[in-house]
UniProtKB/TrEMBL annotation, chains A, B, C:
Record GO terms (molecular function): ammonium channel activity
PANTHER family: AMMONIUM TRANSPORTER, AMMONIUM TRANSPORTER RH TYPE C-LIKE 2
Family: Belongs to the ammonium transporter (TC 2.A.49) family. Rh subfamily.
Keywords: Ammonia transport, Cell membrane, Glycoprotein, Membrane, Transmembrane, Transmembrane helix, Transport
Recorded topology in the membrane: Multi-pass membrane protein
Species: Sparus aurata (Gilthead sea bream)
Lineage of the organism: Eukaryota, Metazoa, Chordata, Craniata, Vertebrata
Domain Ammonium transporter AmtB-like: 67-438
Family annotation (Gene3D superfamilies): Ammonium transporter AmtB like domains (1.10.3430.10)
InterPro entries tied to this protein: Ammonium/urea_transptr (IPR029020), NH4_transpt_AmtB-like_dom (IPR024041), RhesusRHD (IPR002229)
The protein's name in its UniProt record: Rh family C glycoprotein
Superkingdom field: Eukaryota
Cellular component, GO, one term: plasma membrane
Length: 481, 481, 481
């Protein structure tokens, strides 16, 4: 702690948000690197290559419709919407940071997915015969998933970091994600279809640790910009709803063909529906006069989708999904009411979007639910073949049993937490270097720092304008407007 | 009438919009009930259960792609978007009720779909061998459909009811819907793929009757909030467009595999395109200086989708779809211009969103078009097998002929109207009880009642601010903002 | 030139934006014509007709899932979203032309797609046995594509034309498109899956030529309305993101089943990701203080999708897609910075949305990339069967070789440019007639001309309000608001 503290002090510096050299440099260098690495490593797989027709005939596949594209493309597009519109617009709630929310989300997602294709490709899709990564639609989905982890982390530091810092955060985030995912899914053999552990727990703690490392003691100097305005809250609901509606696609996108995708979609649909009701209940109950708080509606309603991620493909049962959603709505909303202020005050973690309540906690719950559900699986419920299919008890793991699988799930959860916290502290150190162009404490949450803003008198509170006007002794209509 | 009148007077009361106890109570009790009922009744069907692999082999199904999930999931997601973004944002047009529009839409849809899965399940998906309801993706679509009926009704009372009243309205609405649907589709054997009768006619008259029961003679006291502002109209266009674009999925979501879904999508696409042109024409023709009215563009452009709902799966022919759309654009827009003010003044029906013009009338037209198209069906056009497939002339109805089917369709329409009006009056009585926390007449259409609003000086007309300011003798710049 | 100039002067006239007769007349006449023509010509094809069941059995098709509907419907819906929400909202960036942007886009797309079904049907889907056009889901996609060309052209004249002019522009645009497309795809046998040439190059030059013909020397009189405001820029990002996310569906919607659709989606996904980074880099590098410009983020990020359109179905290779995107981000952004002002000043082309940078230039690049990629195709990369499939070397073209195909691609590009420029000048002449109700130079970019606007004090710069107020000597709070 002392060490971290002194490192923080070393890094305190005069702030300069000019990224005119650093941002283009990072973009060009990294995009060029991507092109070179893609040239060396990445090729189409047998389902997206022109040899598909021959492959089809050789493998006795009766129709083009059996191409994995048709199993997964609709879900892929839904996930894509979640990443770019969902995450992007969810963060537009701040009154003067909508450009940064949706624009930087766009930038880091577009970079992250390229790097993710490489990192995940090396671990999962490397063809050892020619040393190439062979990609298809499932790789695109996984790349989007990987990016989701970094976008979650962005939520914790929204408005407080520069785009260059975000690019660095994404570079390391994707790298850590790919390693963590390989350990959890392949080495530990945990199942995590919707990424409760791999995506949400990791992404949540990664962002929170970075935010802790970048703690700004005087952030209240920009408190005037920390709230929402009426229309920015409506914009944020666009993000909320597209995340909410397409979450069934998120959790079912890479599950097994057939019943796996079908069941994951149903479970997620139900869990999310249940969350909405308990979120509304708690929001109303804990607010003066029973009024609802948009922050809760925008965020906590999604917690059920996070928490059902791991178990969505299991036989969680419809009522099981409802119970998971029920609990998460309560916990997440209470988190916004009590935990976020507590963390800011006592733990020095400033969590702009409350990702602890929306991703980290529900992710951990999701991991636990997954472990319990897996441990409780029986042949009478799943059927012999169903059990093997669902938990992939094949190859090196053909002697696995449900109870042990439960233990492996729990181990996976621990790995995700460790990678999140450890990685976040490491990357936080890097991001404290005084070279990244982040804003000063009194200048956070302001698009002014990184965006050309329209000359837009509307957006300044009008009475201030009037007062400025008066002070300038300049009331003639010709000079205004 | 006299009885209703006196009942109204009895219910007049001091208004209190505090729902701090009632709303959480309703949410918790009902969600808990859902969990218990789902635990007792709801299970996965054979296509979403882990036994699918064995089922597939036993039934000689060659590929996972034959799972109903792949036939319907893309349409399901489109319908889901219509329910949550489409209906939600369509209602954001009011300048200060966007939170209520999109937020309460979210709440009642999330509750309604759970209750719909149960109600519709008992009627349609009950497995008599074990007494369980077996659900798959088609049930999810039907639940969304059922909810649509209640959201239509919400449009009539938008801004005038409390969230608790909406929950009650949805509980009864879903119940009535399921019964009505069972009578129309199963007992009467009418076909209604896109729900012109079952969803739109029922939902429209249900909402209008409730609005009539809740008539507010002094609603003009909140007329300052009854209009739109520039940006709220743009938000509403998000709703309009997502409804418009995905309506082909709505009407084809539960039709027969193959040509049924294909044809329903084409017919709906064409009807909607045609409606846009006649809506624009009438809107311009009846407005001073030929200017277009956003209310018409936001709403009447959708009427063609409603009116083609029943006949979309029939051989309506492309030009038939265009004609239906042509007429509905005219009728619906004229409805907004003449009928809505007439109904408010003379029939005491205050219809906030004009659902009579968008859902009720076009729904009735859709029912009539369906009856005519069915009665006119011939083997030469449909083919023998096509006729049987399309109208489901099988089992108990294997001796059915098209002309008689036309009569059954008409009967179905009558049932929908009766259930809508009767159910609406009944539920309206309940909603008049002085316990629900709805706003006073001068306080309608205001998010202030149920939402914590951002301190958002922008949204108050600026000159009022200035005046308030002056009255407070408080012009120092430091204290403002 | 001199001739054009004098024609321009002849057409100068007193402006009157009242379209109360002309707009309804055009809508009614054209929609009625559509109904008649559809009645005479358009029928369902064998996959959307009730005879499908018999067709299936006769052709030994094992399952309903082989209906083309299931191969293309998800992509169709994505394309539909791009046309209506994507193009519509992308143009909402102007502070007072959001109604016109999204509303007129809606109107002309709804008309254009009907006319496109006919025009394209005559060329591509005419059944010579009965003289009918047989339509299915692929026709719907192609109609949407055709409309896209006209919507691109709308971008160049946004805010400067009346809805009647737009209808005329769309009528001719669709007609020209269908002829041009037939020449390029069928006669020249060029391939153009994503329409780099057929849609974007044609649409871009069509719009630019019209804008040149309609040059307004005094357009700076409405410069006060030519910019964006904060929220209008966020609305425009909705358009940008839906275009960006669904572009893989656009480029893969009508490619070959199986690997063709799969590969086109992957290539487009990658090209677009790469474009985002170079757009951000150039935007920051060329702006004072390194601040990003929303115009670039909203538009140039999409250029990669345009430029990869033709080659998306070829074996462009993942790194090839990245390179295309890389270059287009740079060129398109530099176009906004240098070329658009240059064209306005020296070429008298006023390009409201900068379609030259987003569609025309990237479209030409796409045509060139397509020609090179086709010419470089080899059997070792594609496989014998893959080569024949991908380039359709069948029937009359069975002796075609890749190098010659490259030449045909280049010829196709020239045809698209010629049709765009020639058609645009022709239609521009028609649109200069003084009968269409377009606005005066000082009245452009203002929804006031064609829309009933809400009484919306917010949207007037507040200090002006205050001043107006003062001048009216009318400060009493009762009369304001």
């Amino acid at each position: 702690m002392g060490c971290v503290q002194s490192f923080r002090e070393i890094c305190d510096r005069q702030k300069n948000t000019n990224v005119r050299l650093s941002l283009p440099a990072v973009c060009f260098v990294w995009q060029t690197a991507m092109i070179i690495l893609f040239g060396v490593f990445i090729r189409y797989n047998e389902e997206s290559d022109t040899h598909w027709v021959e492959h089809r005939k050789a493998n006795n596949i009766s129709s083009d419709i059996e191409n994995d594209f048709y199993f997964r493309y609709p879900s892929f597009q839904d996930v894509h919407v979640m990443i770019f519109v969902g995450f992007g617009f969810l963060m537009t709630f701040l009154k003067r940071y909508s450009f940064g929310a949706v624009g930087f989300n766009f930038l880091i997602a577009a970079f992250g997915l390229q790097w993710a294709l490489l990192m995940q490709g090396w671990f999962h899709s490397l063809d050892y015969t020619d040393g190439k990564i062979k990609i298809g639609v499932e790789n695109l989905i996984n790349a989007d998933f990987c990016v989701a982890g970094c976008l979650i982390a962005y939520g914790a530091v929204l408005g407080k970091v520069s785009p260059v810092q975000l690019m660095v955060m994404t570079l390391f985030g994707v790298t850590l994600f790919a390693v963590e995912e390989y350990i959890i899914l392949n080495l530990i053999h945990a199942r995590d279809a919707g990424g409760s552990m791999v995506i949400h727990t990791f992404g949540g703690y990664y962002g929170l640790s970075i935010s802790w490392m970048l703690y700004r003691p005087n952030l209240d100097q920009s408190s005037r910009l920390q709230g929402s305005c009426y229309h920015s809250d409506v914009f944020a609901m666009i993000g909320t709803l597209f995340l909410w509606m397409f979450w069934p696609s998120f959790n079912s996108a890479i599950t097994d063909h057939g019943d796996g995708q079908h069941r994951a979609a149903i479970n997620t649909y139900l869990a999310l529906a249940s969350t909405v009701l308990t979120t509304v209940a708690i929001s109303s109950l804990f607010q003066k006069h029973g009024k609802l708080d948009m922050v809760h509606i925008q965020n906590s309603t999604l917690a059920g989708g996070v928490a059902v991620g791991t178990a969505a493909e299991f036989m969680l049962m419809p009522y099981g999904s409802l119970i998971v959603g029920f609990c998460c709505g309560i916990i997440s909303t209470l988190g916004y009411i009590y935990l976020t202020p507590f963390m800011e005050k006592h733990l020095k973690i400033q969590d702009t979007c409350g990702i602890h309540n929306l991703h980290a906690m529900p992710g951990v719950i999701g991991g636990i639910v997954g472990a319990i559900t897996a441990a409780a699986a029986t042949e009478s419920v799943y059927g012999r073949e169903g059990l093997v299919n669902t938990f992939d008890f094949e190859g090196a793991f053909k002697d696995m049993v449900p109870t042990r699988q439960g233990g492996h799930q729990a181990a996976g959860l621990c790995v995700a937490i460790c990678f999140g916290i450890g990685g976040g502290i490491l990357v936080g150190c890097i991001l404290r270097l005084p070279i990244w162009g982040d804003a000063a404490d009194d200048n956070c949450f302001d698009d002014e720092s990184y965006w050309e803003l329209p000359e837009d008198e509307e957006s300044v509170p009008p009475i201030l304008q009037y007062n400025n006007h008066m002070r300038n002794k300049d009331v003639s209509p010709d000079q205004s407007g």
